[in-house]
Predict the 3D structure of the following.
Amino acid sequence: MFKTQIISLNIFNKTLYLKLEYQNIAGSIKDRVAYFILGILKKVGKVDKNTIVCEATSGNTGIGIASFCAKNKIPSLIFLPENTSLEKIKILKLFGANLVLTPKEIGLAGSLRLLKAFLKNEFLIIDNTLVSKRDKNLYGKLITNIEPKKFYFFKKYFFNQFENPLNWICHYKTTAREILEFLEEEKKKKINIDAFGCGVGTGGSIYGISKALKEKYKTIKIFSVLPKEYPHDIEGIGPNFEPLFYRKLKEENLLDEEIKLSTLEVKSFLKDFIKHTGIPIGLSAAANILASLIFLDKHNLNSALTLVPDNVYKYLTKISI
């Protein structure tokens, strides 16, 4: 189902290999994880039309979940910060997802806290607002076509992208396998890649891919991409807490360096990159590509592979053109 394309570009005398993850079914790398995990759960009967699949996300995981759920007639409830791009919110609505929009000030961590209150049935729904019983300052606007009282009675499944090991296992088994197949072909042409890096959202992709790459290529360098400031507006990376899989990456000594970028740097680079290459990369992809160039230049290396998690069409209202 997956198998996305890898292309090469020469920028500032550095060779970049870009894996175009926006080619996945609903437009992002997160579709892999959503279809991988929910496909397994559907087969074993853990999710069905009487189960509501719940997740906190900056958008793309929610879209992947909503896509799978639409196809399989399963309800979904997505908690996300209110400053998520309008394009992502509209896509979620088109897939029929139920949404809870939390205040931007509390970030994705706040969306996750409210979701956990919902899972424990420690919530109230008042005037289309879902409120934590324990903390009245923890709330979100409920956008739904379902009668609100039904949310008290659903069987709930917490997707749990930040802690579910099937997240990184999906990337280890699918994304990394495709990359390794590509690298084997490149080796036949006597071409080697010096580094791999990508942004940290859940940490699932960088951990799963890096783990597989280091098993095969011991000397490959691994770098992560993070926001320089909080709050930031680089959707898809840098939740306002350190994810479990990113900690594991560091604990297993797989990481060589962190590259931190500002929202302004990323948005500026995104516009220049699209204008000069014609490739419609999204915000996290712009961060990944800029960080790759910085890392290669800093260490006098020649080539890196990184991910293009989604495309710019989800962020047009966030970019001044």
About this structure: Residues 204 and 302 are 26 Å apart (CA to CA). The first strand starts at residue 6 and ends at 11.
